[in-house]
Amino acid sequence: MSNQQIIEQPQASILTLLSDFGDRDVYVGVMKGVIAQINPALTVIDLTHHILPQNILAARFCLLNAYPYFPVGTVHVAVVDPGVGGTRRAIALQLAQGFLVGPDNGIFSGVLSQSPAVVAVELTNSQYWRVSSPSKTFHGRDIFASVGAHLANGVPIKQLGKEIDPTTLLTLDIAECSQSEASAMGCIQYIDRFGNPVTNIPGSFVHGKSWCVQIAGLTIPGREAYSDVNVGDAIALVGSHGWVEIAINKGNAQSQLQIQLKSAVVVYHDN
């Protein structure tokens, strides 16, 4: 019997939303209205709506780091969708711990690198959309919010559309982390609101070691806390998300060190 046949689909009580819609316009509120029309008792949690416009890479990171903190069966609706209305697929994915709903543009590739899809479907069944002729510019309202709410109500994922091969899902163009005994090579996968560039090198690589980071011609010492260096000095450390990050004590490392997304980075053990 395959995994797809034995994994049950629990009814969820939580649905999360992530987008680049901000809070000035009514877009997020409208999505919540669509969800409430289907299940007004559903708990809806905002992960963030302040992803920079069209920044799929940032959305990937935020969802990756939020996903483990939610109960089994949680439905995650993520909408950073510059290809809305075009040829990109609208999808829903079932994982061992929950569900993902959104565009097939790489936004889910971070979560999928840690927890592969058990079932993947393209959202072709308009019965579960808000309307059968959705807006070309707002699939978050007309498809994803509605589908997410129906999933949370216990609608089997395979009823939402045609099943697709999970290996065909799009991934983002980001350098993978490679490790040797003495060094790890990776890149900057995210920059937070404090200007701290976050690498895709796991903190486990430097645990119990003396280490440093090299990036953009700079060598930055690895320490445990921001206060371990003087105000204004650069530091590398393991953030609460579990990845090696770069910071400036009470400063903005991105602007002061001119570090950008996808910049190459190397971590060296000093011993």
From TrEMBL:
Source taxon at top rank: Bacteria
Keywords, sorted A to Z: S-adenosyl-L-methionine
Domain (S-adenosyl-l-methionine hydroxide adenosyltransferase N-terminal): residue spans on this chain: 15-161
Gene3D superfamilies listed in its UniProt record: Bacterial fluorinating enzyme like, S-adenosyl-l-methionine hydroxide adenosyltransferase, N-terminal
Residue intervals of the S-adenosyl-l-methionine hydroxide adenosyltransferase C-terminal domain: 186-265
Pfam families for this protein: SAM_HAT_C (PF20257), SAM_HAT_N (PF01887)
The keyword S-adenosyl-L-methionine is annotated on this UniProt entry: yes
Coiled coil: none
InterPro entries: SAM_HAT_C, SAM_HAT_N, SAM_OH_AdoTrfase, SAM_OH_AdoTrfase_C_sf, SAM_OH_AdoTrfase_N_sf
TM regions (residue ranges): none
PANTHER family linked to this entry: CHLORINASE MJ1651 (PTHR35092:SF1)
Family per similarity comment: Belongs to the SAM hydrolase / SAM-dependent halogenase family.
The protein's name: SAM-dependent chlorinase/fluorinase
Source organism: Plectonema radiosum NIES-515
